[in-house]
Amino acid sequence: MSSKLIFELNTEGRIGYRFPSLDVPEIPLDSMLKKDLFRQKPAALPQVSEVDVIRHYTELASKSFGVDAGFYPLGSCTMKYNPKINEDVASFQGFADIHPLQPLNTVQGTLELIYKTTESLCEITGMKWGTLQPFAGAHGEFTGMKLFKAYFKKKGDTKRTKVLVPTSAHGTNPASSHISGFDVEEVQADERGLVSVSSLKEHLSDEVAGIMLTNPNTLGLFEKDIVEIAGLVHEAGGLLYYDGANMNAIMGKVRPGDMGFDVIHLNLHKTFATPHGGGGPGSGPVLVSDKLIPFLPVPDITEHDGKYTLNYDKPDSIGRISGFYGNIAVIVRAYAYILTMGSDGLKKASEMAVLNANYLKERLKKTYHLFYDTTCMHEFVLSADTLHDEHGISALDVAKALLDNGFHPMTIYFPLIVHEAMMIEPTETESKQTLDHFVDVMLKIYDEAVKNPEKLKEAPLHTPVKRIDEVLAAKNPVLRWVKE
Amino acid sequence: MNVPENLKYTEDHEWARVEGKVAYVGITDHAQQELGDIVYVELPDIDTEVEKDEEATSIESVKAAAPVNSPVSGKIVKVNEDLEDEAELVNKDAYAAYIFAVEMSDPSELDSLMDAAAYKKFLGK
User: Whose CA is closest to B102, among B67, B69, B73?
Assistant: First the structure.
């Protein structure tokens, strides 16, 4: 059933508030404000009572789907369960009720938390220092590319205009390097689904600023040649950028810093169990090796005798990349998660994430086409290509059918190197029962696809909104309510 | 798979139809099938210089955004404005819906493109 918009609940004259009578002299508005600042018509706000508002938003909330509602195997997004203790900590008055312009001596606790989170993240990743300012992964990538630019500018090396991005990299990498002013060159994957070292060699030159890489890559495969790759890029004078999208596979096992990366970003909202989806709020800390520390954004947080201050005196810094210090409430949750888990817990989380993915992969590959049949990391990519060729059922149809079964779909049509891709990431927080149930449903969908494909093409049938016209929605989205 | 005889093809699944010094460029039937329902075709600006095998413009479907490379070097002299409102024309008939036309600076570049038989073989791989 589709909901009414709050504007459609409007009843002329209905209000949900009552002011006391005015006990001070009324001052005419035009004595305080210029006439041209006045609104010409009253704002078209909905006239509703408190209970109208509550029921409306409760109904909408009941239709939303998140990790608290069910299994969410969205590949590359790490939709793990977010422990509620993190919420408790983030709501502590000392974190929740502060303002970014308060005097620093009144927010020492928050500054200490930012400092210590940076330290912890450096320990987990093997990097030297960083910034927690970026609001999301792609914002971190942008910051990282700015660091690349600043580094080469300082060296007087202005020829480096290209950034290499493997076809198995994370989807935002080409966009981030492009928007930062670099020309993007694609490096091919080889038959193993890994970066082709020979293709990389062909692309390397004194015009290459560096490479953006995800490890494990978007096929969920560990780039085994990473040390050789790092050596080749560094030898050619370039830098390595690590996209932390898939960090959940390797915590406590292997560190990007040890692999030879110069700049990395993490997604606290993926790996470090902070809420995620619907566009935010996220957090994409950027961490660097020694040689890039001078270029990090300002302000930097420094500690002296247990007192924390903000340092703006960094002449080579790329400047500010956020209004203040980042999404603090998200950082608080991530730090709570890191401390709750401890180093053993984080390691175990990655182990279980990899085990869960391999369990699903092994059970599903007997029915669905698995392109790269090898041990995967935290995610794997199936293909609906045989279903598509033989029964006309695409990855999109399978995803829609999952909706009818109470699951959030997997990522589809990415990575682009797999036809009819279905990218599945179960995460460590799911039980074997949940995974088995998911397998049962996937097998049932396959069976339906073979026996009754026409019906499957109509899915979903049990959701508030049925199959949408994706072309119309993309070309002609209706985003604003207009009074008739 | 529909692969007309009178066109030249690239490994990136573009086609070129040559009329004198001008090459009309579009994407192949295979490419439109792979992309799925196309929602937007970006049209390059007239007079833009393009390089062979370099991205000239892009095309967006419900599944993905994909670059369209120019099969030849030269200057954009014409674009298919019908696609502005009706991107789906590419799905309907990929070979009727050219995207842009290039005045070739080096017509000998055509020799490096595949003919229909070679492209069919390439698709069969």
Answer: B73
